[in-house]
Specification:
Layout: H1 3-7, E1 15-18, E2 26-31, H2 37-50, H3 59-67, E3 76-83, E4 86-95, E5 103-110, H4 119-138, E6 141-148, H5 152-160, E7 164-175, E8 189-192, H6 195-210, H7 215-223, E9 233-236, E10 243-250, E11 257-265, H8 274-288, E12 293-299, H9 304-313, E13 317-329, E14 337-343, H10 349-362, H11 377-385, E15 392-398, E16 401-410, E17 416-423, H12 427-437, E18 447-453, H13 457-465, E19 469-480, E20 492-494, H14 500-510, H15 518-523, E21 528-533, E22 536-544, E23 551-559, H16 565-583, E24 591-596, H17 603-607, E25 611-620
Parallel strand pairs: 5-6, 11-12, 17-18, 23-24
Antiparallel strand pairs: 1-2, 2-3, 3-4, 4-5, 6-13, 7-12, 7-13, 8-9, 9-10, 10-11, 14-15, 15-16, 16-17, 18-25, 19-24, 19-25, 20-21, 21-22, 22-23
Helix pairs in contact: 10-11
Length: 632
């Protein structure tokens, strides 16, 4: 399976979920429409205040562009990112050069107040999902993104998405007014560009300047709806009348700046101040048209130094240097690559067995271990059966073979959701599977959590990209049947409803944010033991196990913090010994696991024979620094 085949799936263009900031509300990415123009203009003003490269379009200008189907440079797709109902970013995918062009340009921005939280990454991934959809119509596509030198984060993301540096450009601009336009050396005839007279000759000049095979750069400008031939210029030799240079201007309706999108001089004519005379004539035209500024860009190559010097002498100042990144995208191979999202409850027994058999070997090695599901097929199947109602599974198949998977489940009574996985071969594949799964997560379940071995770079990388922050390191300890258990010193009994109030207080103090409340533990019949000290309930322990599973898990264990440290350790040792003794009376249970903060912080676990088997990391969108499994 090639990299492109792994990535060649449809990524949802309507995603919602939490941004990475602790406590942040859900981020919604959806189509940007004309109804959003006022918000969009306000966003551009906020960005422009710190980044003048972003034009602060007025609402009426944006309305005008929408009325033209926002097809200023060909067909276009727009998306906005809303955080807590406020527009804080946008992305645009536009076809550069008309309906027949196979060149797509990606652009967008994010409100400076919420940057470095993964919002730009998600907008860029939305853009790439749109690109893949367009390949169905256009076939192979070249995608371009322009990144300024200071945009280090964007450059890093583009490199991760397999973009390559193609060229480096410099942008220059100057104000335009009648009294500041310089004069140029006379000697040439400079006239407005007329396609029927000048296009073929100007294209020949372009080939002379840029080389054979560069036609698309020139023709793309002519195909733009913003191309202004009356503001563009050609330079003619005064004796022969031959075209020896050209300058092409584009201008969007409502913009106050004219942009020199292409300029070229026949190689044999360089040294005659052709560039200067073209620019001066264009400045006069821009001024007469009521525009107040002019801008242009140059590719930084062997010929650029002279052009930059000419522009500087004519009053242009350097405003920005940036690099163009390019990536080729092949059409989706839908017959080979497919992705599905299915409620777990709708999978047949045979399908669940198949999923369990696929997960188990991938969950065995430390570097691919994902918490909660287990490491052998019957254990995984039991965990699948125990998933919360509504759980869904996203699966990617290539050529009929499962290549990636992720499961989402959530607590019906809180805002928490658990993401099991992803199991995938590459980050792009993992993100694509999640993009398909994400719309199925209820919007209210915006406290996502993943739990994995700390060496699992696939899941920890996924957590970092999607704003799940580290929420503690944990150890999984395990004890097998057959060991010698100490005799309890304190009284330990099975739960009795007469002690509910004492148990509820202990449980709430230890786990105030847990989804499994004291009432639910009792109502659902979770195995529960109470530990007594001086005749009062001062500790408890719960066990979780599934039918047919040979491993049981200690889910909660806590003792009253008012007890002295030695008394607490003894009571926990007694709770563990009593619970293990009774759980191992069931012949099918061979092992019991417990998750703790550290091995050394739980001498009670060591006293009954628990040994370290795995080191885990918890990652959450809203860190709480607690877990529903605790040794305290």
């Amino acid at each position: 399976m090639t990299f492109l085949e792994e990535e060649a799936i449809t990524v949802s263009s309507s995603m919602s979920g939490p941004v990475s900031a602790p406590g942040a509300p859900a981020l919604e990415i959806r189509e940007l429409t004309q109804a959003d123009v006022e918000e969009w203009a306000d966003l551009l003003r906020r960005v422009n205040a710190t980044d003048p490269r972003v034009v602060a379009w007025a609402p009426e200008v944006l309305h005008t562009r929408f009325s033209n189907d926002f097809g200023v440079d060909g067909p276009s797709s727009l998306a906005g990112a809303w955080l807590d109902g406020a527009l804080i970013g946008y992305a645009r995918v536009r076809q550069d050069g008309g309906a027949e062009s196979r060149l797509l340009r990606l652009a967008g921005t994010v409100d400076p107040a919420v940057r470095r939280q993964g919002i730009g990454t998600r907008l860029l991934r939305w853009s790439m999902g749109t690109v893949y959809k367009w390949t169905r119509v256009l076939g192979p596509i070249d995608v371009i993104v322009d990144a300024a030198a200071a945009e280090e984060d964007l450059r890093a993301i583009l490199e991760q998405l397999s973009f390559r540096e193609a060229s480096t450009f410099a942008e220059m601009s100057r104000t335009v007014s009648a009294d500041t336009i310089p004069t140029a050396t006379r000697g040439l005839v400079v006239v407005p560009f007329r396609a029927e007279e000048h296009e073929a000759a100007a294209l020949d000049v372009h080939r002379s300047a840029r080389g054979e095979g560069a036609d698309s750069e020139f023709l793309t400008v002519l195909a733009k709806q913003t191309f202004r031939p009356e503001l563009s210029r050609v330079a003619l030799d005064p004796d022969s009348g031959a075209v020896i240079g050209y300058l092409l201007v584009v201008h969007a309706p409502g913009d106050t700046q004219g942009w020199v999108d292409a300029i070229g001089v026949r190689r044999s004519e360089r040294g005659r101040d052709v560039t200067a005379q073209l620019i001066v004539s264009a400045l006069v035209g821009l001024c007469e048209d009521g525009l107040t500024s002019a801008g242009m860009g140059f590719m930084i190559d062997a010929t650029a130094e002279q052009d930059l010097a000419v522009c500087a002498s004519l009053g242009f100042e350097m405003t920005l240097s940036w690099t163009r990144f390019v990536r080729s995208v092949e059409p989706q191979v839908e017959s080979a690559v497919s992705i599905s999202v299915t409620p777990v409850a709708e999978l047949s027994g045979a399908e669940l067995d198949d999923v369990a058999a696929w997960v188990a070997p991938r969950n065995g090695p430390r570097q691919t271990y994902v918490g909660y599901l287990g490491t052998y097929a019957p254990q995984v199947r039991a965990e699948l059966d125990a998933l919360s109602p509504g759980a869904v599974v996203a699966q990617l198949h290539y050529g009929g073979h499962r290549m990636a998977m992720m499961i989402g489940e959530w607590d019906p009574e809180s805002s928490r959701a658990w993401l099991h996985g992803p199991w995938a071969a590459a980050d792009e594949v993992a993100d694509a599977v999640f993009a398909a799964l994400e719309p199925y997560l209820p919007a209210a379940k915006n406290e996502w959590e993943v739990f994995c071995d700390r060496s699992n770079r696939m899941v920890t990388g996924f957590a970092e990209r999607h704003g799940l922050l580290p929420d503690g390191a944990f150890d999984i300890l395990q004890v097998a049947r057959g060991g010698q258990l100490p005799t309890p010193v304190n009284t330990v009994t099975r739960y009795d409803e007469a002690h509910f109030a004492a148990f509820e207080k202990l449980h709430y103090n230890a786990h105030p944010d847990t989804h499994l409340t004291a009432e639910r533990i009792v109502t659902e019949g979770v195995p529960l033991w109470l530990g007594f000290y001086d005749g009062e309930v001062r500790g408890y322990i719960t066990i979780r196990r599934s039918a047919g599973e040979s491993i049981a898990r200690i889910e909660h264990m806590s003792t009253a913090p008012s007890l002295a440290e030695g008394a607490r350790t003894q009571l926990k040792t007694d709770l563990l010994a009593s619970a293990l003794s009774q759980i191992f009376d069931e012949p099918e249970i061979n092992q019991v696991e417990i998750t703790t903060r550290t091995v050394t912080s739980d001498p009670a676990a060591a006293a009954v024979g628990f040994q370290l088997i795995r080191q885990m990391g918890l990652y959450r969108t809203v860190p709480r620094l607690t877990t529903h499994v605790s040794s305290d």
